[in-house]
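User: I'm preparing a small set of examples for a lab meeting where we compare how different chains pack in three dimensions. I only have the primary sequence for this one, and I'd like the structure in token form so I can line it up with the others. Please keep the answer compact; I'll paste it straight into my notes.
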Amino acid sequence: MTKQTADKFSFGMWTVGWQARDPFGEATRAALDPMHIVDKLAEIGAWGVTFHDDDLVPFGSSASERDAIVAKFKQRLAATGICVPMITTNLFSHPVFKDGGFTSNNRDVRRYALRKVLRNIELAADLGARTFVLWGGREGAEYDHAKDVRAALDRYAEAMNTLTSFVVERKYDIRFAIEPKPNEPRGDILLPTIGHAIAFIERLEHSHLVGLNPEVGHEQMAGLNFTSGIAQAMWQGKLFHIDLNGQRGIKYDQDLVFGHGDLINAFSLVDLLEFGGVSGAPAYDGPRHFDYKPSRTEDTDGVWFSAAANMRM
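Assistant: Understood. Below is the structure token output for the 313-residue chain.
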């Protein structure tokens, strides 16, 4: 398939690389090497690849191992023409983050989370990524009395102020995009919707550097109209990045192929993004990023067929 450069189609390594392990079943596919993912994305016509730090460099790798992996990754990017428009950090998988990263009740964990993100910002700058997404999947609780929400928001804001001050001091051309989600894996997650996140951002020191990375399924899990939410994010100048996938109503996060859920809302979203600007010009010029998961029933070939289906939508 010809590369769709103008469309800026990008995929997370964790999407096509998902081994189809879920809370009730083991993996149904083998792990994919990150370098192979880059090659295959180029083959199906994608423009960019994104990743969490641990997607590329396994957690606990030594400095020399990390350097070798990053060097090899850069070679694959150069060979394929694939770019890295966005990077994010995994602050949810390791048991140390069981109570969150930036909002953990444990001060040592909060400090470690900041160090992990700051190190990854350096990699983002090195690779030319201009957007840094922050999804606080563990920033929340299951019980109302387990975490002081006001204190947690203070800690969240302190972390964001530290990160934005860091990029300002280093003169990096990087902006941050908060990804809202109402629940899962936590019972309740802080900054659950576009509206919550926008209100939070307005209280930050460098709020011009912080916007949103809304995801179709996350807003629809809360019963909200995704197109309307995106329109408001645009109106407030806060749509820094977007995650496209499919969701069929208020249930667990399905991460279906884009359009394989609420088809009418998907059409209205595309119309807004592509023709909602002045005189019918695109209203959004950032990456069209697909954060989906191939079905557990797919084999390896099916992974790439489903990835291409997102771009055809």
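A couple of notes for your slides: Strands lie at 9-12, 48-52, 86-88, 131-135, 140-141, 175-179, 188-189, 210-212, 243-244, 288-290. DSSP finds eleven helices and ten strands in the chain.

User: Perfect, thanks.
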